[in-house]
Amino acid sequence: MNQCQIGTHCDNLSQYYYQIQEKVKEALVNTGTISASRIANVEPIIKSREIIIYVTILDFPRIKNAFKTQNMKLAEETLTSSSVIVDGDEEACFWKNSYKYEPFTAVAFCKTENGNICQRIDEDKVKIVEDKDNGIPCSVFMTPLKNIFRYSRELPLENIHEKLAHIEISLTSPNNKDVFKLTSYQVTDVTKVDDDVPLSNSLYETIMQNSKLIEDNLNTVRIDGTIDLGSCRRKCVQSTENNCQSFSFCTYADRVECFVSTNSNDKMVNDASCGTYLIDNLAKYKKISLRRFTDIEKSVPFVSSLEKCASICSDSDSCKSFQFCSGACSLAGYYTDTSSVYSESCDIYIPKVLDRFAITGKLSKTCFTQN
């Protein structure tokens, strides 16, 4: 959230909508730790004395997916004395070399009996030579920019909160060219999970202990790479299509398991090591009591429960808020103070910041640039 520091400019903030979008994105990129391709959306909600800005920031992709790969058997002379043994996969090899600023043209990752070899190759010094008969099997990743140092500076999602808390943007009045500043006074981060806080206080409520969703590889899938309940929950929130409706997390003696599903709780089995959680769409919204929209003719009211109304709005890309009046639901666009009036029988619901500061997609192709 941002507050306007100079009162004379706060009366007509709606005229700065697009300028705010560009300035926030520019401020994030200028930190040098969040690339422009990760900023999926900047959405200002302008009120009379404050602006709520929903920022959707994507996680950075697996670095090996960003480069052209060739599988080949490299000659021994290509793997020089500068090669190192790494305890990990191709991703670990890339991370090790992302902190190197000197130029190189390729990274080779080779699995051998003595361990996994990670080799940075500079073709100005060592040529990539293939030996199909006696060579060492390797994956060779070409780095056309001759450097991946920029990748090592990208902030993971759990560290972005601190950067957002210090963002300050300057806006220029279109009338008299006066410049004034907006500063952050509150930032809420959904990617920071406190596992001591019950899930009933968040977007989910427990629907059944000692139960587990049944994996069918269609609606319900197992998710690898989770380490705790919080990371399993984030996998559900961060699903590619943003349609995860439930998840199960299991803690066994030798492992943990996470399952996410587009369904609720219709396919489950008993398991004493597991718990299943259902998304609560109403928890995504903040209630603006005793207000109704002045212009909502395009939305036809329909009879619905409050919870069902919230679910329908959450599933709709075009719904930015909704109005609920004595059992009648109306889907709506962006909410502002000036677009609504007092009502004894209606309430308006707008998305909470905590729900919108989340990953809602993933990068499938990335281009790295180096200044």
Explain this structure.
This protein has 371 residues and is an alpha+beta fold. It has four domains: 2-60 and 154-184, no CATH class; 63-151; 204-279, Hepatocyte Growth Factor (3-Layer(bba) Sandwich), CATH 3.50.4; 283-351, Hepatocyte Growth Factor, CATH 3.50.4.10. It has helices at residues 17-29, 90-98, 149-152, 160-165, 229-237, 306-315, 353-356, and strands at residues 2-4, 39-46, 50-57, 69-74, 84-86, 106-112, 115-121, 136-142, 168-172, 179-184, 204-213, 220-222, 246-251, 256-261, 268-279, 285-288, 291-293, 302-303, 321-325, 328-332, 340-342, 346-351. The strands form five sheets. A five-stranded antiparallel beta sheet has the order 2-3-1-10-9, covered by helices on one side. Residues 274-346 form the Apple domain. It comes from Tetranychus urticae (Two-spotted spider mite).
List the helices and strands and how they pair.
Blueprint: E1 2-4, H1 17-29, E2 39-46, E3 50-57, E4 69-74, E5 84-86, H2 90-98, E6 106-112, E7 115-121, E8 136-142, H3 149-152, H4 160-165, E9 168-172, E10 179-184, E11 204-213, E12 220-222, H5 229-237, E13 246-251, E14 256-261, E15 268-279, E16 285-288, E17 291-293, E18 302-303, H6 306-315, E19 321-325, E20 328-332, E21 340-342, E22 346-351, H7 353-356
Antiparallel strand pairs: 1-3, 1-10, 2-3, 4-8, 5-7, 6-7, 6-8, 9-10, 11-15, 12-14, 13-14, 13-15, 16-22, 17-21, 18-20, 19-20, 19-22
